[in-house]
Amino acid sequence: MSELTPLDKAEAAAREAAANTDVARIVAAVLATQQAVQQTPASAPQCQHDHHKPRRSAGEWVGIACAVCVGGVGIAFASIALAILGGVAAIVVLVLRDMWRDYQKGK
After folding, report:
1. Distance between CA 102 and CA 37 in Å, rounded?
2. Is residue 52 part of a domain?
3. Do residues 79 and 103 share a domain?
4. C-alpha triplet 74, 93, 84: angle, nearest 5°
5. Would you place residue 98 in the very low, low, confident or very high pLDDT band (cuts 50, 70, 90)?
6. Do residues 4 and 12 touch, judged by C-beta distance below 8 A?
7. What is the pLDDT of residues 4-18, one digit of tens each?
8. What is the mean pLDDT of the chain?
9. Do 3 and 38 belong to one domain?
10. How far apart are CA 49 and CA 75, in angstroms?
11. If we measure between CA atoms, which residue out of 15, 19, 56 comes closest to residue 4?
12. What's the confidence (pLDDT) of residue 17?
């Protein structure tokens, strides 16, 4: 039997190291995959936004109250204007009816 030369020993050691490197890479990949699978349920995706509707500030409520008051006053004035218009229309109709009767009697 022949004895291995240092060059043959180095070549065998290099082959063994290369084989061990491949095995080490495979083991590292398997471990990384297992860790990722185990961490996924623990760190379930969570919403990054707030589910509560934003509440109105005091300034917004004051603005809404002012708008309601102005709208109410506008409706009140419109109602008064319609009442006055109805009264004026009734007076005009009565005056015109009286004038028509006077005109009919004069014939």
Report:
1. 104
2. no
3. yes
4. 15
5. very high
6. yes
7. 777 777 777 777 777
8. 82
9. yes
10. 42
11. 15
12. 75
Q: Which of 87, 88, 92, 90 is nearest to 100 (CA)?
A: 92
Task: Note the pLDDT of residue 45.
Answer: 63
Whether residue 37 has pLDDT greater than 70: no
Tokens of 45: 């995706």
Tally of domains in the chain: 2
The span from the CA of 29 to the CA of 79, in Å, is 81
pLDDT the model gives residue 2? 65
Domain assignment present for residue 53? The answer is: no
Contacts of 64 (CB under 8 A, 6+ apart): 56
Alpha-carbon distances, residue 40 vs 18, 27, 31, 33, 49 (angstroms): 33, 20, 14, 11, 21
